[in-house]
Amino acid sequence: MNSLYEQKALTSLESLGLSVAKERLDTTCQQAAAGQWTYSHFLGYLLEGEIVERRRRTVELNLQFARFPVPKRLSDFDFAAQPALDRRLIDELATGRFLYEGRNLVFLGPPGVGKTHLAIGLGVMTCEMGHRVYFTTATDLARKLTTAMEQNRLHRQLCALTQPKLLVIDEIGYLRLDATQASLLFQVICHRYDKNQAIVLTSNKPFTEWGEVFCGDAVMASAALDRLLHRCTVINIRGESYRLKERKAAGIPPQSEYSAALLAEHAAKTKVE
Ligand code: ADP
Ligand code: MG
To answer: What confidence tens digit (pLDDT) does each residue in 90-130 have?
Structure first.
């Protein structure tokens, strides 16, 4: 017959919130008996299972919360294709030290060079380190903040945006922001700066053109840049578009030539004599 403490084991594990250990108690007891484990081996094994499962669930929740548009990893990045990029710098960033220093990262460069890939890769890494990340494009962020402002919950929204350990703002400069959107984006940058929380930004526009992005407001753009660049690593990727490179390697002409060829073919076929 089971002792009182054996009977209590399940309810005690439940009261302590150790649900995985509770679930696995029976099988682990059988393993322990079969393997003639010591008591401490048994306890260590059971608790390790709880910790591993908790970590896995935390990472899963972090990845869900982050809302990455596509899954990208730093390990999938082909550094040989971007020789001008300093791999050691990316390796250093992958240690996550920038997160604890509240250092920002800005990836600049033309389309297709891997800015978003690297930003997501660092975001995924941050999730795996057990932290919250929030990924957004500049346009979506501006839209979200505008709605929050209209619904009188801007302050709450701004506070919520300072919570994640990392905020990724993709594609600054693809679309020009209006005056309200520019001011809202500025406020996000200020809030995170005040809390010493890191931002990863990507942009196809050099800093000299950020006045344009901020609705022609050079003063606001420079105030935003002042905060962003105070503790910041700027990574300029000047190489060729990876997509274009892949197309070339596959013997497919670049998109524009390809479209031009198709258009010419279509025009020839539909030509009225
Ligand atoms: P950007 O944000 O600079 O416009 P992306 O990061 O969206 O470019 O890259 C475009 C596509 O090419 C993505 O699918 C990305 O994963 C891939 N890509 C770009 N550079 C590399 C690279 N060096 N190694 C592997 N994939 C890459
Ligand atoms: Mg991009």
So the answer is: 999 999 999 999 999 999 999 999 999 999 999 999 999 99
CA triple 233-202-212, angle to 5 deg: 105
Q: Are residues 77 and 197 in the same domain?
A: yes
Q: Residue 183 has what pLDDT?
A: 94
Give 208's DSSP letter.
Answer: G
Which residue type is seen at 71? P
Q: Is the CB of 111 under 6 A from ligand 1?
A: yes
* CB of 77 closer than 6 angstroms to any ligand 1 atom: yes
Protein residue with its CA nearest to atom 20 in ligand 1? 114
Instruction: Tell me, in angstroms, the distance from the centre of ligand 1 to residue 111's CA.
Output: 9
Find the 95 Cα to ligand 2 centroid distance in Å: 23
Tokens matching residue 242: 């990876």
Predicted confidence band at 267 (pLDDT cuts at 50, 70, 90)? Answer: low
Domain contains 273: no
Residue 128 amino acid letter: E
Dist CA 207 CA 185 (whole Å): 16
Sequence letter at residue 85: L
Whole-model pTM: value is: 0.86
Q: Indicate the pLDDT class of residue 3, thresholds 50, 70 and 90.
A: confident
How many Å lie between the centroid of ligand 1 and the Cα of residue 225? Answer: 25
Beta bridge partners of 199: 167
- Helices 179-194 and 154-162 pack at an angle, to 10 degrees, of 50
Is 247 within a domain?
A: no
Domain span including residue 22: 3-64
pLDDT of 259 higher than 90: no
**Count of domains forming the chain:** 2
